[in-house]
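User: structure tokens for this one?
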Amino acid sequence: MPRAGLTVERIVAAAADLADEVGFENVTVSALARHFGVKDASLYSHVRNLQELRTRVALLAGGEMIDRIAAAVAGRAGKEALAAFAGAYREYAHRHPGRYAATQIRIDQSLVADSPALRRTAEITYGMLRAYGLDEPDLTDAVRLLRSTFHGYCALEAAGGFGAPRDVEASWDRAVDALHVALENWPREETKDHD
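Assistant:
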């Protein structure tokens, strides 16, 4: 029987907080059980296993992140929307390193289809990119470019990987400027004529 006061929502929120404190990879069912002062078995009444717990943290974090991004890009288009999107993304990665790490894990596609947060992420990201006149398959390629650039920058920055004296903020702004130029001049995939 589930312990009174423990809910899936409380457990996932505590796991997300713990991820920010000790790193996403260090979140365990045992650590959470200690946090709540219960035995591991009490948590297994709410989550099947560590993988489910981590997936739930990823979905929670993804929802939080897209809420911040949506608020930042609201009413903006083009370069202004891109800069707002990028800034909200980077700020979330800085403020919530464990939650942010959770957003990078691979999630079962059946869960993605049922996640309002992940659907909203796609809608907002693709909506911003459609302002650049992109359609598939260019939209998917552009999303991958943005994600890899933003994630790479945030990961290197968090690890202290930028040692040059150049201001990291100035480099970030230039990277966003370069992405804007790339999106405006996107090399459209040519359709091939078949004889």
